[in-house]
Amino acid sequence: MAKQRGLPLDESEKRKLSKKNLAKLSGIFRFALPYKGYFIAGMIFLFLSSLMLLTFPFVAGKLIDAASGEEWVINDINGIAFILLGILLVQSIFSFFRVWLFAQVSERSMKDIRVALYEHLVRLPMTFFDQRRTGELISRITSDVSLLQDTFSITLAELLRQVITLLVGIAFLFYSTPRLTLFMLITIPLLVIIAMVFGRFIRKLSKTTQDELAAANVVVEETLQSIVTVKSFTGEAYESNRYRFRLDRVVEVALKAAKFRGAFISFIIFALFGGIVAVIWYGATLVSAGEMSIGDLVSFVLYTTFIGGSIAGLGDIYGQVQKAIGSSERVLEILEEAAEERKSGAEVQKVAGSIRFKQVVFHYPTRPEYRVLDGIDFSIGPGEKVALAGHSGAGKSTIIQLLLKFYALGQGDILLDGQSIRHWDPQQLRQNIGIVPQEVLLFGGSIRENILYARPGATEKEIIAAATQANAWEFIQRFPDGLDTLVGERGIKLSGGQRQRIAIARAILKDPAILILDEATSSLDAASEALVQEALDKLMKGRTTIIIAHRLATIRKVDRIYVLKSGKIIEEGNHEELSALSNGHYAHLVNLQFADDLSRPSD
Ligand code: ADP
């Protein structure tokens, strides 16, 4: 991403170079520690190649002096030219190793950071994901880490190189021509710094121009997207005016920027090159007074350009380091986030499947003022089937999330086989619970991989048995690639009913004591529905089942229905009992929600 250097830095991404902030950067450096051998070797090569390059102007000066007959250790023009070539050759070999060694460090340590981030990320509790947007998290793994990679591979090396150039260059000049050096140091660095500040300002202006242009493009995009609306409201003239107005702004800002850009270029031509002219002029007077040779003047001017360049380079690096601190801050923030608890060592415990909610009161951490569950109390025996009914937002899914230990319990308790789930390791607990979700999302990969997700060690026979029970084997078999058929974004698209049956096969393979069915709200076609229903019936057999019910067909079969409203259970009983309650919430829901089902002849 070297090409990004020099772009205007987003102010919000920069951090001050304080001690505390530098400590953050060092927090990231621990990832480079395993590769410190490469790093040190790279630094040595860098050091050597920087020193080597610094001898170049000196020897070049001697070459010119040799032409005018000045005495040096070697007076032969060809000999000195060969030395120069030799310097370049050694320098290029050093540079190769420097780049290669730093790449070793940056590539490997960035991989380690990415893996550490990802491993940690997927282990974070649900509350973390509630508070973050996916895009933001992805950008931490991608852009933030890439920026750190630049820091490890380019920025640090550049920093060292520029500092060496600056210090050694100036020291050498002071030693050889002190008066001219003093003269140079009070002109050139100041001019370079002014040029840099000016340059930054101009880049900021051109970013404003780009922003204005983007705003203008939004008008075009919006209009074209809603062309029907624009035409039907005869808004053509209005939209054209809006666009013209936006473009006027672009021109205004761009012209302002152009004024400064022009001034900048004039400044560079006049002041910066003027500074160089001044140095050469002063040098020339020294030469004519016999205090300095022409070759020394040439090497002096070359050193001066080196020094000017490294002052400019350091300014750039300063910005890069500030940005890198911002990135490491964001990366470390995730790494320091507390992961879900893990209780190590314990064997996976199989449960019989009795569940008891004891006066559970709950609010999501992100919304502390809002009680989502308000004293939920029920128990389900092993193998029993219950349904949760209620309007959307009543708290049905929250009950499931708590059972899965996605969130820490507040008041009350949840017992599994009589034991509080507070003491359970979340992963072991989830091993005992199978879920068939409302919307089945399959991972990109084969059908086999998707079914195996439940139990990676399962045999071919077990997979086929599970698929058969789930009424999925028949359609899987019909694909030319069978179980190896690719699904997901790059594979074939399965129908809703087919995906449901894959999810059922997955759950069968997992063979959990407890099953959660989140029924799809949108209905499948009748044939598919029957196949899914039959598969579900098989899956539910002998398992404690909680259904978030949307279908009358399932709800009629359950042992008990809990009717939820605003986080409370307000009615409980079977379908007949609850339907018979006049003015009952369930009876009302049935009329409302299941009207479609009721009108179906099959029900
Ligand atoms: P149901 O499943 O019955 O539709 P939910 O349990 O999903 O209801 O939601 C109950 C209430 O909790 C709703 O008001 C919903 O907005 C809120 N809620 C659900 N999930 C979260 C969450 N992760 N963070 C904050 N509030 C949530």
Automatic annotation (TrEMBL):
InterPro entries: AAA+_ATPase, ABC1_TM_dom, ABC1_TM_sf, ABC_transporter-like_ATP-bd, ABC_transporter-like_CS, P-loop_NTPase, Type_1_exporter. Keywords: ATP-binding, Membrane, Nucleotide-binding, Transmembrane, Transmembrane helix, Transport. Residues 355-591 form the ABC transporter domain. It comes from the Bacteria. One of its GO terms (molecular function) is ABC-type oligopeptide transporter activity. CDD domains: ABC_6TM_bac_exporter_ABCB8_10_like, ABC_MTABC3_MDL1_MDL2. The keyword Transport applies. One of its GO terms (cellular component) is plasma membrane. Residues 40-323 form the ABC transmembrane type-1 domain. It is found in: Cell membrane. The keyword Isomerase does not apply. One of its GO terms (biological process) is oligopeptide export from mitochondrion. Its main location: membrane. The chain crosses the membrane at residues 38-60, 80-101, 159-176, 182-202, 264-285. It is a multi-pass membrane protein. SMART domains: AAA (SM00382). PANTHER family: ATP-BINDING CASSETTE SUB-FAMILY B MEMBER 10, MITOCHONDRIAL, ATP-DEPENDENT PERMEASE MDL1, MITOCHONDRIAL. This is ABC transporter, permease/ATP-binding protein. It comes from Cyclobacterium lianum.
